[in-house]
Protein backbone atom coordinates (compact mmCIF):
# COMPACT_ATOMS: atom_id res chain seq x y z
CA UNK A 1 0.00 0.00 0.00
CA UNK A 2 1.02 3.61 -0.49
CA UNK A 3 1.60 5.85 2.50
CA UNK A 4 -1.82 7.47 2.10
CA UNK A 5 -3.58 4.09 1.97
CA UNK A 6 -1.75 2.96 5.13
CA UNK A 7 -2.77 6.12 6.96
CA UNK A 8 -6.41 5.80 5.89
CA UNK A 9 -6.58 2.15 6.95
CA UNK A 10 -5.08 2.85 10.37
CA UNK A 11 -7.35 5.88 10.85
CA UNK A 12 -10.44 3.80 10.08
CA UNK A 13 -9.36 1.22 12.68
CA UNK A 14 -8.86 3.92 15.32
CA UNK A 15 -12.25 5.50 14.65
CA UNK A 16 -13.98 2.13 14.97
CA UNK A 17 -12.41 1.62 18.42
CA UNK A 18 -14.14 4.82 19.67
CA UNK A 19 -11.52 5.68 22.34
CA UNK A 20 -12.31 8.30 25.00
CA UNK A 21 -9.47 10.50 23.71
CA UNK A 22 -8.19 10.47 20.13
CA UNK A 23 -4.85 12.08 19.28
CA UNK A 24 -4.17 12.80 15.60
CA UNK A 25 -0.71 13.91 14.52
CA UNK A 26 -0.79 15.45 11.01
CA UNK A 27 -3.54 13.02 9.95
CA UNK A 28 -4.06 14.49 6.46
CA UNK A 29 -0.46 13.98 5.34
CA UNK A 30 -0.41 11.73 2.26
CA UNK A 31 -4.22 11.58 2.06
CA UNK A 32 -5.88 12.24 -1.29
CA UNK A 33 -8.88 14.55 -1.67
CA UNK A 34 -11.51 11.87 -1.19
CA UNK A 35 -9.76 10.46 1.88
CA UNK A 36 -9.50 13.96 3.37
CA UNK A 37 -13.21 14.49 2.91
CA UNK A 38 -13.88 11.23 4.79
CA UNK A 39 -11.57 12.40 7.58
CA UNK A 40 -13.27 15.81 7.79
CA UNK A 41 -16.67 14.11 8.07
CA UNK A 42 -15.38 11.82 10.83
CA UNK A 43 -13.93 14.76 12.76
CA UNK A 44 -17.22 16.68 12.55
CA UNK A 45 -19.15 13.64 13.79
CA UNK A 46 -16.72 12.78 16.62
CA UNK A 47 -18.41 13.12 20.02
CA UNK A 48 -15.40 12.40 22.22
CA UNK A 49 -12.26 14.37 22.99
CA UNK A 50 -9.96 14.90 20.01
CA UNK A 51 -6.58 16.63 19.96
CA UNK A 52 -5.24 17.34 16.48
CA UNK A 53 -1.74 18.47 15.51
CA UNK A 54 -2.11 19.82 12.00
CA UNK A 55 -1.33 22.60 9.54
CA UNK A 56 -4.28 21.66 7.31
CA UNK A 57 -6.50 24.75 7.21
CA UNK A 58 -9.61 22.84 6.17
CA UNK A 59 -9.22 20.42 9.07
CA UNK A 60 -8.57 23.24 11.54
CA UNK A 61 -11.81 24.92 10.49
CA UNK A 62 -13.58 21.99 12.18
CA UNK A 63 -12.08 22.33 15.68
CA UNK A 64 -13.43 24.16 18.75
CA UNK A 65 -10.18 25.65 20.06
CA UNK A 66 -6.72 26.45 18.73
CA UNK A 67 -3.64 25.96 20.92
CA UNK A 68 -0.71 27.80 19.35
CA UNK A 69 2.80 26.68 20.27
CA UNK A 70 5.20 29.54 19.60
CA UNK A 71 8.64 30.28 21.04
CA UNK A 72 8.23 27.69 23.79
CA UNK A 73 4.81 28.92 24.99
CA UNK A 74 1.26 27.71 24.38
CA UNK A 75 -1.55 30.23 23.86
CA UNK A 76 -5.20 29.29 23.59
CA UNK A 77 -7.73 30.81 21.18
CA UNK A 78 -11.42 29.99 21.15
CA UNK A 79 -13.07 28.90 17.93
CA UNK A 80 -11.79 27.45 14.67
CA UNK A 81 -8.91 28.54 12.46
CA UNK A 82 -10.78 31.51 10.97
CA UNK A 83 -11.56 32.79 14.48
CA UNK A 84 -7.91 32.29 15.41
CA UNK A 85 -6.77 34.34 12.40
CA UNK A 86 -9.22 37.12 13.26
CA UNK A 87 -8.05 37.22 16.89
CA UNK A 88 -4.44 37.22 15.74
CA UNK A 89 -5.11 40.08 13.33
CA UNK A 90 -6.62 42.16 16.16
CA UNK A 91 -3.60 41.40 18.36
CA UNK A 92 -1.18 42.34 15.61
CA UNK A 93 -2.99 45.57 14.84
CA UNK A 94 -2.76 46.53 18.53
CA UNK A 95 0.91 45.50 18.67
CA UNK A 96 1.77 47.55 15.58
CA UNK A 97 -0.07 50.55 17.09
CA UNK A 98 1.99 50.18 20.27
CA UNK A 99 5.17 50.15 18.18
CA UNK A 100 4.18 53.43 16.56
CA UNK A 101 3.43 54.98 19.97
CA UNK A 102 6.72 53.70 21.40
CA UNK A 103 8.68 55.00 18.40
CA UNK A 104 7.12 58.45 18.85
CA UNK A 105 8.02 58.34 22.56
CA UNK A 106 11.65 57.45 21.80
CA UNK A 107 11.81 60.32 19.29
CA UNK A 108 10.37 62.71 21.87
CA UNK A 109 12.77 61.60 24.61
CA UNK A 110 15.73 61.97 22.25
CA UNK A 111 14.63 65.52 21.46
CA UNK A 112 14.13 66.40 25.12
CA UNK A 113 17.57 65.01 25.97
CA UNK A 114 19.14 67.03 23.16
CA UNK A 115 17.30 70.19 24.31
CA UNK A 116 18.39 69.60 27.89
CA UNK A 117 22.02 69.20 26.80
CA UNK A 118 21.81 72.53 24.91
CA UNK A 119 20.40 74.29 27.99
CA UNK A 120 23.05 72.80 30.24
CA UNK A 121 25.81 73.87 27.87
CA UNK A 122 24.37 77.41 27.79
CA UNK A 123 24.28 77.56 31.60
CA UNK A 124 27.83 76.26 31.80
CA UNK A 125 29.05 78.97 29.45
CA UNK A 126 27.20 81.63 31.47
CA UNK A 127 28.65 80.35 34.72
CA UNK A 128 32.14 80.33 33.28
CA UNK A 129 31.64 83.90 32.08
CA UNK A 130 30.53 85.05 35.54
CA UNK A 131 33.48 83.22 37.07
CA UNK A 132 35.93 84.86 34.70
CA UNK A 133 34.48 88.38 35.30
CA UNK A 134 34.73 87.87 39.08
CA UNK A 135 31.59 89.91 39.75
CA UNK A 136 30.87 87.91 42.91
CA UNK A 137 33.04 86.62 45.76
CA UNK A 138 34.95 83.47 44.87
CA UNK A 139 33.31 81.36 47.60
CA UNK A 140 29.81 82.20 46.28
CA UNK A 141 30.79 81.51 42.66
CA UNK A 142 32.28 78.10 43.61
CA UNK A 143 29.12 77.21 45.52
CA UNK A 144 26.96 78.15 42.55
CA UNK A 145 29.24 76.13 40.24
CA UNK A 146 28.89 73.00 42.39
CA UNK A 147 25.12 73.42 42.60
CA UNK A 148 24.90 73.90 38.83
CA UNK A 149 27.01 70.78 38.20
CA UNK A 150 24.84 68.68 40.54
CA UNK A 151 21.66 69.99 38.94
CA UNK A 152 23.04 69.35 35.46
CA UNK A 153 24.02 65.81 36.38
CA UNK A 154 20.58 65.01 37.80
CA UNK A 155 18.91 66.58 34.78
CA UNK A 156 21.07 64.58 32.37
CA UNK A 157 20.49 61.31 34.24
CA UNK A 158 16.72 61.91 34.33
CA UNK A 159 16.49 62.41 30.56
CA UNK A 160 18.89 59.51 29.85
CA UNK A 161 16.78 57.19 32.00
CA UNK A 162 13.58 58.33 30.29
CA UNK A 163 15.15 57.62 26.91
CA UNK A 164 16.30 54.16 28.06
CA UNK A 165 12.80 53.37 29.35
CA UNK A 166 11.26 54.52 26.06
CA UNK A 167 13.66 52.29 24.11
CA UNK A 168 12.78 49.36 26.37
CA UNK A 169 9.06 49.91 25.74
CA UNK A 170 9.78 50.04 22.01
CA UNK A 171 11.74 46.79 22.17
CA UNK A 172 8.86 45.08 23.98
CA UNK A 173 6.35 46.41 21.47
CA UNK A 174 8.46 45.21 18.52
CA UNK A 175 8.73 41.72 20.04
CA UNK A 176 4.93 41.50 20.19
CA UNK A 177 4.70 42.04 16.44
CA UNK A 178 5.01 38.82 14.44
CA UNK A 179 7.37 39.46 11.60
CA UNK A 180 8.25 36.12 10.01
CA UNK A 181 11.25 36.57 7.74
CA UNK A 182 10.59 36.07 4.05
CA UNK A 183 12.60 34.25 1.41
CA UNK A 184 13.56 36.67 -1.34
CA UNK A 185 15.69 35.12 -4.08
CA UNK A 186 16.51 35.88 -7.70
CA UNK A 187 16.93 32.81 -9.94
CA UNK A 188 17.48 34.10 -13.50
CA UNK A 189 19.27 30.96 -14.73
CA UNK A 190 16.15 28.85 -14.15
CA UNK A 191 14.26 30.67 -16.90
CA UNK A 192 12.51 28.51 -19.50
CA UNK A 193 11.24 30.30 -22.58
CA UNK A 194 7.62 29.69 -23.65
CA UNK A 195 7.31 26.88 -26.17
CA UNK A 196 10.53 25.13 -25.22
CA UNK A 197 10.12 21.39 -24.69
CA UNK A 198 10.76 20.55 -21.04
CA UNK A 199 9.39 17.04 -20.47
CA UNK A 200 7.91 14.31 -22.67
CA UNK A 201 6.02 11.25 -21.42
CA UNK A 202 5.21 8.82 -24.21
CA UNK A 203 3.16 5.59 -23.83
CA UNK A 204 4.56 5.30 -20.33
CA UNK A 205 3.90 2.17 -18.29
CA UNK A 206 5.36 2.55 -14.80
CA UNK A 207 6.97 -0.22 -12.78
CA UNK A 208 3.92 -0.55 -10.56
CA UNK A 209 1.40 -0.66 -13.39
CA UNK A 210 0.23 2.93 -13.85
CA UNK A 211 -0.09 3.97 -17.48
CA UNK A 212 0.00 7.22 -19.41
CA UNK A 213 -1.19 6.43 -22.90
CA UNK A 214 -0.23 8.58 -25.86
CA UNK A 215 1.99 11.60 -25.35
CA UNK A 216 2.04 14.17 -22.58
CA UNK A 217 4.35 17.17 -22.94
CA UNK A 218 5.38 20.02 -20.70
CA UNK A 219 6.43 23.15 -22.60
CA UNK A 220 7.82 26.41 -21.28
CA UNK A 221 7.42 27.52 -17.65
CA UNK A 222 4.26 25.50 -17.06
CA UNK A 223 3.18 24.64 -13.54
CA UNK A 224 1.67 21.16 -13.53
CA UNK A 225 -0.27 19.73 -10.59
CA UNK A 226 0.16 15.95 -10.43
CA UNK A 227 -2.93 14.68 -8.67
CA UNK A 228 -4.71 11.39 -8.09
CA UNK A 229 -5.94 9.06 -5.41
CA UNK A 230 -3.57 7.38 -3.00
CA UNK A 231 -1.76 4.57 -4.78
CA UNK A 232 -2.28 6.07 -8.24
CA UNK A 233 1.49 6.17 -8.92
CA UNK A 234 2.41 9.84 -8.41
CA UNK A 235 5.66 9.24 -6.54
CA UNK A 236 6.59 6.45 -8.93
CA UNK A 237 6.05 8.76 -11.91
CA UNK A 238 8.28 11.48 -10.42
CA UNK A 239 11.04 8.97 -9.67
CA UNK A 240 10.75 7.59 -13.16
CA UNK A 241 11.19 11.08 -14.63
CA UNK A 242 14.36 11.56 -12.53
CA UNK A 243 15.76 8.24 -13.83
CA UNK A 244 15.76 6.67 -10.38
CA UNK A 245 13.24 4.06 -11.56
CA UNK A 246 13.08 2.41 -14.97
CA UNK A 247 9.66 2.29 -16.68
CA UNK A 248 8.18 -1.06 -17.63
CA UNK A 249 7.74 0.36 -21.13
CA UNK A 250 7.53 3.66 -22.94
CA UNK A 251 9.70 6.66 -22.12
CA UNK A 252 10.00 9.68 -19.87
CA UNK A 253 12.46 12.23 -21.26
CA UNK A 254 13.51 15.48 -19.59
CA UNK A 255 14.92 17.97 -22.09
CA UNK A 256 16.31 20.42 -19.49
CA UNK A 257 18.27 20.14 -16.22
CA UNK A 258 15.99 18.98 -13.40
CA UNK A 259 15.98 18.54 -9.63
CA UNK A 260 13.71 16.45 -7.41
CA UNK A 261 12.50 17.32 -3.90
CA UNK A 262 11.41 14.03 -2.29
CA UNK A 263 9.07 13.67 0.67
CA UNK A 264 11.88 12.31 2.83
CA UNK A 265 14.05 15.43 2.40
CA UNK A 266 17.03 13.03 2.28
CA UNK A 267 18.96 15.12 -0.25
CA UNK A 268 21.41 16.61 2.27
CA UNK A 269 24.45 15.01 3.90
CA UNK A 270 23.78 15.15 7.65
CA UNK A 271 27.49 15.31 8.44
CA UNK A 272 28.06 18.48 6.40
CA UNK A 273 27.06 22.06 7.16
CA UNK A 274 24.36 23.86 5.22
CA UNK A 275 27.00 25.81 3.27
CA UNK A 276 29.01 22.66 2.53
CA UNK A 277 25.90 20.87 1.25
CA UNK A 278 25.09 23.72 -1.13
CA UNK A 279 28.73 23.74 -2.28
CA UNK A 280 28.34 20.08 -3.34
CA UNK A 281 25.47 21.09 -5.61
CA UNK A 282 27.25 24.22 -6.89
CA UNK A 283 30.97 23.30 -6.97
CA UNK A 284 32.10 26.32 -8.99
CA UNK A 285 30.49 28.89 -6.66
CA UNK A 286 32.75 30.73 -4.21
CA UNK A 287 32.19 30.49 -0.47
CA UNK A 288 31.14 34.15 -0.34
CA UNK A 289 28.65 33.66 -3.17
CA UNK A 290 27.15 30.60 -1.48
CA UNK A 291 26.76 32.43 1.83
CA UNK A 292 25.22 35.46 0.15
CA UNK A 293 22.65 33.22 -1.56
CA UNK A 294 21.97 31.25 1.62
CA UNK A 295 21.25 34.50 3.45
CA UNK A 296 18.28 34.95 1.13
CA UNK A 297 17.02 31.57 2.36
CA UNK A 298 17.36 32.90 5.95
CA UNK A 299 20.66 31.13 6.69
CA UNK A 300 22.63 34.19 7.72
CA UNK A 301 26.08 34.23 9.30
CA UNK A 302 26.72 31.26 11.60
CA UNK A 303 23.39 29.66 10.67
CA UNK A 304 24.99 28.55 7.40
CA UNK A 305 27.53 26.60 9.50
CA UNK A 306 24.92 24.40 11.18
CA UNK A 307 25.26 20.72 10.38
CA UNK A 308 22.33 19.37 8.39
CA UNK A 309 21.72 16.65 10.98
CA UNK A 310 20.94 19.28 13.65
CA UNK A 311 18.36 21.25 11.65
CA UNK A 312 14.69 21.42 12.56
CA UNK A 313 12.11 20.20 10.04
CA UNK A 314 11.47 23.69 8.67
CA UNK A 315 15.18 24.55 8.54
CA UNK A 316 15.97 21.29 6.77
CA UNK A 317 13.31 22.00 4.20
CA UNK A 318 14.72 25.48 3.51
CA UNK A 319 18.27 24.10 3.28
CA UNK A 320 17.15 21.38 0.86
CA UNK A 321 15.24 23.87 -1.24
CA UNK A 322 18.29 26.18 -1.31
CA UNK A 323 20.57 23.33 -2.39
CA UNK A 324 18.25 22.38 -5.26
CA UNK A 325 17.48 25.89 -6.51
CA UNK A 326 21.12 27.05 -6.29
CA UNK A 327 22.47 23.89 -7.94
CA UNK A 328 24.64 23.83 -11.07
CA UNK A 329 23.38 23.64 -13.72
CA UNK A 330 20.36 25.64 -12.59
CA UNK A 331 17.25 23.42 -12.63
CA UNK A 332 14.75 24.41 -15.30
CA UNK A 333 12.41 21.62 -14.24
CA UNK A 334 11.59 21.16 -10.56
CA UNK A 335 9.77 18.06 -9.31
CA UNK A 336 8.15 18.36 -5.88
CA UNK A 337 6.63 15.37 -4.07
CA UNK A 338 4.07 16.44 -1.43
CA UNK A 339 6.23 19.44 -0.48
CA UNK A 340 3.89 20.82 2.20
CA UNK A 341 3.80 17.62 4.27
CA UNK A 342 5.24 18.30 7.75
CA UNK A 343 5.67 22.02 7.05
CA UNK A 344 4.24 24.62 9.37
CA UNK A 345 2.32 27.51 7.84
CA UNK A 346 5.29 29.89 7.96
CA UNK A 347 7.39 27.34 6.02
CA UNK A 348 4.62 26.90 3.44
CA UNK A 349 4.55 30.68 2.94
CA UNK A 350 8.32 30.67 2.46
CA UNK A 351 8.04 27.85 -0.09
CA UNK A 352 5.47 29.86 -2.01
CA UNK A 353 7.78 32.90 -1.88
CA UNK A 354 10.70 30.87 -3.24
CA UNK A 355 8.58 29.42 -6.05
CA UNK A 356 7.41 32.91 -6.99
CA UNK A 357 11.05 33.63 -7.90
CA UNK A 358 11.48 30.36 -9.78
CA UNK A 359 11.16 30.86 -13.55
CA UNK A 360 11.37 27.27 -14.73
CA UNK A 361 8.75 24.51 -15.10
CA UNK A 362 7.16 22.83 -12.08
CA UNK A 363 5.58 19.42 -11.62
CA UNK A 364 4.08 19.21 -8.13
CA UNK A 365 2.48 16.16 -6.58
CA UNK A 366 0.17 17.42 -3.84
CA UNK A 367 -3.24 17.05 -2.26
CA UNK A 368 -2.98 20.52 -0.73
CA UNK A 369 -5.40 22.53 -2.87
CA UNK A 370 -4.80 25.93 -1.20
CA UNK A 371 -1.06 25.48 -1.82
CA UNK A 372 -1.59 24.51 -5.47
CA UNK A 373 -3.74 27.59 -6.00
CA UNK A 374 -1.13 29.85 -4.36
CA UNK A 375 1.68 28.78 -6.71
CA UNK A 376 -0.31 29.44 -9.89
CA UNK A 377 -0.95 25.97 -11.31
CA UNK A 378 -1.56 26.18 -15.07
CA UNK A 379 -2.49 22.55 -15.86
CA UNK A 380 -3.23 19.25 -14.14
CA UNK A 381 -2.25 15.65 -14.81
CA UNK A 382 -4.55 13.35 -12.87
CA UNK A 383 -3.49 9.74 -12.40
CA UNK A 384 -5.94 6.97 -11.70
CA UNK A 385 -8.98 9.02 -12.69
CA UNK A 386 -12.06 6.91 -13.06
CA UNK A 387 -14.20 7.49 -16.19
CA UNK A 388 -17.45 9.38 -15.77
CA UNK A 389 -20.52 7.05 -15.81
CA UNK A 390 -21.38 6.02 -19.36
CA UNK A 391 -18.61 8.26 -20.68
CA UNK A 392 -16.30 5.42 -21.70
CA UNK A 393 -17.45 2.06 -23.09
CA UNK A 394 -16.44 -0.96 -21.08
CA UNK A 395 -13.05 -2.22 -22.18
CA UNK A 396 -12.17 1.01 -24.01
CA UNK A 397 -8.59 2.25 -23.74
CA UNK A 398 -7.88 4.70 -20.93
CA UNK A 399 -7.69 8.31 -21.97
CA UNK A 400 -4.22 9.90 -22.06
CA UNK A 401 -2.96 11.04 -18.71
CA UNK A 402 -4.87 8.45 -16.65
CA UNK A 403 -3.65 5.49 -14.67
CA UNK A 404 -4.79 2.92 -12.16
CA UNK A 405 -2.07 1.50 -10.00
CA UNK A 406 -0.24 1.54 -6.68
CA UNK A 407 3.04 3.19 -5.85
CA UNK A 408 4.09 -0.09 -4.32
CA UNK A 409 5.41 -0.55 -0.79
CA UNK A 410 7.84 1.89 0.74
CA UNK A 411 7.43 4.81 -1.64
CA UNK A 412 5.52 7.08 0.74
CA UNK A 413 7.05 6.27 4.16
CA UNK A 414 4.78 6.27 7.19
CA UNK A 415 5.35 5.81 10.90
CA UNK A 416 2.26 4.89 12.86
CA UNK A 417 2.19 4.88 16.65
CA UNK A 418 -0.77 3.63 18.68
CA UNK A 419 -1.86 3.25 22.25
CA UNK A 420 -1.08 4.97 25.50
CA UNK A 421 2.65 5.63 25.85
CA UNK A 422 3.26 3.43 22.82
CA UNK A 423 1.05 0.58 24.08
CA UNK A 424 -2.01 -0.49 22.12
CA UNK A 425 -5.40 -0.74 23.72
CA UNK A 426 -5.36 2.26 26.08
CA UNK A 427 -8.01 4.91 26.55
CA UNK A 428 -5.88 7.29 24.53
CA UNK A 429 -5.28 6.38 20.91
CA UNK A 430 -2.75 8.20 18.75
CA UNK A 431 -2.17 8.32 15.02
CA UNK A 432 1.18 9.81 14.01
CA UNK A 433 2.26 10.23 10.40
CA UNK A 434 5.80 11.34 9.55
CA UNK A 435 8.66 10.39 7.26
CA UNK A 436 11.17 8.55 9.46
CA UNK A 437 13.89 11.21 9.28
CA UNK A 438 11.52 13.85 10.71
CA UNK A 439 10.34 11.75 13.66
CA UNK A 440 11.63 12.54 17.15
Secondary structure layout:
Blueprint: H1 3-17, E1 21-25, H2 33-45, E2 49-53, H3 57-60, E3 65-70, E4 73-78, H4 81-133, H5 138-176, E5 197-205, E6 211-219, E7 223-228, H6 234-242, E8 249-254, E9 258-261, H7 274-281, H8 287-295, H9 313-325, E10 333-337, H10 345-357, E11 361-365, H11 369-374, E12 379-383, E13 428-432
Parallel strand pairs: 1-2, 1-13, 7-11, 7-12, 9-10, 10-11
Antiparallel strand pairs: 3-4, 5-6, 5-8
Descriptors for this entry?
440 residues; Rossmann fold; single chain; five-stranded parallel β-sheet; alpha/beta; three-stranded parallel β-sheet; disordered C terminus
CATH fold naming of the largest domain: Rossmann fold
SSE succession: HEHEHEEHHEEEHEEHHHEHEHEE
Whole-number count of domains: 3
Largest sheet: 5 strands, parallel
Low-confidence stretches: 386-426, 433-440
* Rg over alpha carbons: 31 Å
The N- and C-terminal alpha carbons lie at a distance of 24 Å
Query: What would you give as the CATH superfamily of the largest domain?
Result: P-loop containing nucleotide triphosphate hydrolases
Average residue pLDDT: 79
Helix content: 40-55%
Q: What is the total tally of β strands?
A: 13
Task: Output the structural class.
Answer: alpha/beta
